[in-house]
């Protein structure tokens, strides 16, 4: 197992109680790990293979947290789809599919395995590297900005209904994530110039393609797509038939809506054409 710590793999493989799993592919990866697929792989010391990986999060018999990386992406995809449908699925990867076993979890997991000690990081001498951990939710930074964009994509309808078309008479105004639309910043706050800068950087992706996974397209109702683009210090979430939302590292907790206008539809169409899509 190239690039793995044999003791760590053995420890994680010893009665691993699987709690959840996620995909790490160009089109679908935990956004807390990076703005694009190569960044996400680098965070886990993995080469950015074209087919990607599956990440299996669980505990061993001592309760230690482990993230087991496997190269059987389809197995993890089937497990996730089954769980999403409320079906049971025994995710038991073949040991030959294991690429590495990493201590800790990169994501927050709200459940624990029954009958074993509470989740904790394995001993450093067994782990062989610092344990993975979820981002600190008490501070704002790139990971929190990307998580905020994830939430908007998942809860698009609830976010969209808070913004009426009259809002865009002052395009670039922002809305605090914890407030109703009347809690807007004025355009003098720099929201308008920030949005223009982000849209310009996103537009540059069309002519100079960014690293794989910076622009992703996924399912949306009707004939639309949900579009996600990330860049240095910013994230965009949009529906190809609707508006966009911008989040910025330098504007903690704020969401900046962007109206359709004359330019956004063409930009979203161009980005969608170059975006990677789930298989």
Automatic annotation (TrEMBL):
Superkingdom assignment: Bacteria
Biased composition (Basic and acidic residues): 172-187
Region called Disordered, residue ranges: 116-143, 169-193
UniProt-recorded name of the protein: Integral membrane protein
């Amino acid at each position: 197992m190239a690039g793995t710590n044999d003791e760590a793999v053995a420890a994680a493989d010893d009665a691993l109680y699987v709690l959840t799993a996620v995909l790490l592919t160009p089109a679908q990866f935990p956004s807390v790990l990076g703005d694009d697929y190569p960044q996400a792989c680098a965070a886990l010391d993995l080469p950015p293979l074209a087919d990607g990986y599956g990440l299996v999060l669980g505990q061993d018999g001592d309760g230690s947290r482990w993230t087991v990386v496997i190269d059987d992406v389809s197995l993890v995809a089937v497990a996730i789809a089954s769980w999403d449908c409320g079906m049971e699925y025994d995710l038991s990867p073949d040991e030959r599919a294991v690429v590495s076993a990493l201590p800790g979890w990169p994501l927050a997991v709200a459940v624990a395995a029954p009958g074993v000690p509470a989740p904790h990081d394995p001993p450093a001498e067994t782990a062989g590297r610092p344990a993975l951990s979820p981002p600190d939710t008490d501070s704002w930074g790139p990971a929190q900005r990307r998580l905020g964009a994830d939430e908007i994509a998942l809860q698009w309808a609830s976010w969209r209904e808070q913004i009426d078309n009259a809002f865009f008479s002052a395009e670039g105004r922002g809305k605090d994530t914890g407030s109703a639309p009347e809690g807007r910043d004025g355009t003098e706050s720099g929201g308008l110039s920030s949005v223009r800068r982000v849209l310009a950087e996103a537009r540059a992706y069309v002519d100079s393609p960014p690293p794989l996974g910076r622009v992703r397209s996924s399912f949306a109702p009707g004939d639309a797509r949900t579009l996600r683009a990330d860049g240095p210090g910013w994230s965009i979430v949009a529906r190809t038939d609707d508006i966009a939302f911008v989040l910025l590292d330098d504007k903690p907790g704020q969401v900046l809506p962007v109206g359709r206008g004359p330019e956004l539809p063409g930009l979203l169409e161009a980005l969608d054409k170059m975006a990677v899509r789930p298989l």
